[in-house]
User: Fold these one by one.
Assistant:
Number 1:
Amino acid sequence: MTIVYEDRDDEAPSDIPVRRIKFTINGQKKIAEVEPRLLLSHLIRQGLELTGTHMGCDTTNCGACTVLVDGRPVKSCTMLAVQADGRKIETVEGLATASELHPLQEGFKEEHGLQCGFCTPGMMMAAKALLDANPDPSEEDVRWALSGNLCRCTGYQNIVKSVLWAADKLREAQA
Ligand code: FES
Ligand code: FES
């Protein structure tokens, strides 16, 4: 894996420490050599070219960069890539299969849960963590689970409806 960094003119290439990490992303096993300062979000977007994980703030505020690490939602701009060593990462690209959308993706479509779509990958991953843990959430549960994710377009109402739509669909599929 190759990641190109800014040259700050103050470090010889041999001075830059590199760590080798192993992880799984969307079911695929990977090995990467990363600088200890590299953020997980940059590994995902630049190293792995999975650009569905968005960067809205870089300061742990917006939640657009949310991915799942060992099933738990994490703002990937807040975690170092080296901390992903040995872990299982899921991004929005892993939701759909080759032939079918994930019920969350269908729900956002059916209930008009997005406008510009910038926040949507992070919303879906936070919602996936909720539905994996609680298949029958209340509206309040959904609002709480998404409270770390900001949307500047929709006013949240339709996002909440989308997640509840997906919860119904997933429960029907398992009935
Ligand atoms: S880009 Fe990570 S929280 Fe905003
Ligand atoms: S749909 Fe535009 S920021 Fe959420």
Number 2:
Amino acid sequence: MSTKEAHPDRYIDEMFANHTGVLARLVPGYAARDGQIQLVHAIHDTIAKQGVLLGEAPTGTGKTLAYLIPSIMHAIRSGRPALVVTANKALQEQLIEKDLPLLVNAFRAYNPAFTFSYQLIKGRSNYLCLREMEAFNASGLLGGAENLEEAQALSAWGLITNTGDQSDAPSSVSQRTWSAFSTSGDRCTRRACAFHEHCFADRALDEAEQANVVVANYDLFFSKLLYANEPMWARFSTIIFDEAHEAANIARRCFGREVSLGHINQLATDVSKYLGDHNLARAMRNTATPFFEEVMRYALNMDTPRVCEPDFVRAVELIDVVDDAMRAAKGKCGGCDDDARCGTCAYRTLIHDRAKAIIEQIQEFVSQSNDSTAYWIEKPYDAGRVTAQNVRLRSVPYRVGDQLSQRVFERYPAVIAVSATLTSGGSFDFIRDELGLTSTPPTRVTVKHKDGTETDGIDLLAHVWKFAPYNSNDGDDDINVRGLRVPTPFNYAKQAKFVVPLGIPWPISENDAIFNHAAAEAIKQLIHDCQGRVLALFTSWRRLKYVAEKLAGNIDYPLLVQGDAPNKILAQMFRDDTNSVLLATKSFWMGLDVQGESLSCLVIDKLPLESFDDPLIDMMKQRHPETFWNDFYFPRAAIELAQGAGRLIRSTTDRGVFVLLDSRILVKSYGGMMCRSLPFVGVSKSLADAGKFLTSPSP
Ligand code: SF4
């Protein structure tokens, strides 16, 4: 350890100090923030002592640098890398293009010996597959002729690209054409592939294996935890979950399953192509089509969001024919010396494993054997468009906490979960429960002995999580999960106003038409009073369209509506034209960053209470009626509302009004918890106060 390293956390002062620190020298306008410094120290401590930190850091805290700097420092000192897991592409781009390059310079400035490398890693389908490209070049065919030009452009690009990354590919190429030139993990033959040595996906993986910091998204990380045992994913000493409020929901989707006619037809194509068994492939298609036609008929007649009827469809013939495929693919090809390097053997294994997974999925779906899983048939909203080709059997587990606890929190030495919104009503209880970090009473187990006798005991292997608020002076080694809420750097009392206008009917189904009308009128009034500068976020597309129609031609400011242009372009137009108005749905709810006057008034139409048409919500309500509302349903909505409200104040110079058109927040018993999840001080009940606040001089 150099003199500079005599104090293990001295680097924090040297990096973050105002005026004289490394960041102050490298970042124009840099200012240290109390919340950021608190978070850095807590993260440093958690990595050093090992454990889990739940860190709520409001917008403007600078949480990215707060988690990157201590985890990079630990990676450099320990030689064990850190993994940053993110929920969206924009954050990945920010990390790779802005924050990590900045920190390479910052660490070098702190100590020239402190160098580190970083790498973004994506799922296999994001990279050009050389095998698929070769298949196209050999045949010159790709689906319909309309894609031929795109395919030729992609093939030409494939010869010159260094990365093979979809984000570098010609922008004219559609997702459909890209899919034909890429492959998924369950169709890739890896080391047995003739193109393995030059494979773009494997090259990126090799580079990630050497990096000190790896950035990945939740989907990739969770799928690796479930299906693969690749050493690369075991070597991290620190895992950062950014946007951690999303982690459990994404885990549900990743740990869930789906089967469609397309999956079985794809398997049949591979049976024909790689096993040479055309009769079996035909039999698979001929059995799968009537099966999914029956599923489609059932789906069209369902009046519940979930399938709650075991054996609702006869699956035995389909299972038998997929079982034939599994058996046909079993074993080696018989014509090779080294099956580990034999492409035919590798295809056989992939077909075997996919057939096995499909059988298990159909069996589980039809028997609905798992109590804590929601089973449903996914189909287009419009009944006229439902076909056997577009229905899917879907299943999603409700409880993912146990899996996350075992596969992430118990497995890696330090896990830092950060977000602007982790608590609901000021409590970490909901997020701890979602992530599997609650202390459960020791489980009683019964052990059966060989002689037939049984003994009762406690499951000593069960992991116990102990939670406490983070306190830097606390030396209690038993505490392995800590929660920290750092203060906002913004002055909400001066910078913002929260308005919940009275007199608007509640947005409940009986009031749909009158609420839509009242919402359109209120938004029109706000646009007038605030001179445009309004972002209105809707919880339903139907309401957005209704309001857009009512406003078109009736306001004096440019109207931007989601769907009229790609989201990125709309967001930029809204930023650039200060007086414009943007109407959008939940895709703008998280991640939209508009600083300055362009976003002076944020409107949310309705509390984001989830619909009971959602199969997961329906299942939770039926199965856990005692805990559903207060432990699950309302806390989820509170976190989401806080995320949406977080679009308003993005810098210390922003001023703005948040108008919620749903006065249930003032009346209902859950409203207090929702209000406590928001950063505003006080609430006004008059719509006119919005415009008055914006025109009043800044205090
Ligand atoms: S290893 Fe082969 S099949 Fe797999 S992605 Fe690379 S080129 Fe494609």
